[in-house]
């Protein structure tokens, strides 16, 4: 193991080790979203177009006494109408909590499953090859990337000002999803952990 890898690993480990009076936080959120589902086939992709949707989830921040937070985020989303679909994902959540500023940026890295129906009239181009006039449901797993900005309103509520993310599906034949959303975050009571 090189010195750089060892130093990086040690730094991350020290960052994630709970300290005295560290606080764990569980939060739930709901958002309205603009969602796009795309079909990936023959190493090309084609999207059906944007549709309205909803995203709901919960995240848990581990008890770390630091400006950086680390936790787990689990979410589900639903896009309405014929261009809609569904998504379920779990991710590592890294956030930054400034001392005197109400802005709280974060990013997610994880995995999920997206599903949607496609037919020959929904999309055009090489990705439509092999589709039929009847709707066929496709489901595939993929990597989730997302980033956003929460604005602290009170100890209990944040405004999710913006979140942008995607779940990239398999390139041979699968479903991907991209989303842009805004909503509210409710923080359940914090729990202090003394070591």
Automatic annotation (TrEMBL):
- Keyword vocabulary terms for this entry: Signal
Q: Where is the signal peptide?
A: 1-24
Query: What name does the UniProt record give this protein?
Result: Outer membrane protein beta-barrel domain-containing protein
Where does this protein come from, organism-wise?
Tunturiibacter gelidiferens
């Amino acid at each position: 193991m090189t010195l750089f890898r060892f130093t990086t690993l040690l730094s991350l480990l020290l960052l994630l080790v709970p300290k005295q009076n560290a606080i764990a936080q569980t939060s739930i959120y709901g958002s309205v979203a603009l969602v796009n589902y795309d079909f990936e086939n023959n190493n090309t992709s084609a999207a059906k177009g944007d549709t309205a949707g909803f995203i709901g989830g919960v995240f848990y921040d581990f008890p770390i006494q630091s400006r950086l937070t680390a936790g787990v985020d689990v979410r589900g989303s639903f896009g309405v109408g014929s261009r809609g679909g569904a998504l379920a994902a779990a991710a590592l959540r890294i956030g930054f909590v400034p001392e005197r500023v109400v802005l709280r940026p974060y990013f997610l890295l994880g995995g999920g499953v997206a599903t949607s129906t496609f037919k020959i009239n929904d999309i055009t181009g090489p990705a439509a090859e092999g589709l039929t006039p009847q709707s066929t449901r496709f489901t595939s797993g993929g990597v989730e990337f997302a980033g956003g900005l929460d604005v602290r309103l009170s100890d209990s509520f944040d405004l999710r000002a913006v979140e942008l993310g995607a779940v990239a599906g398999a390139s041979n034949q699968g479903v991907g999803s991209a989303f842009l959303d805004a909503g509210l975050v409710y923080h359940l009571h914090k729990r202090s952990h003394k070591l």
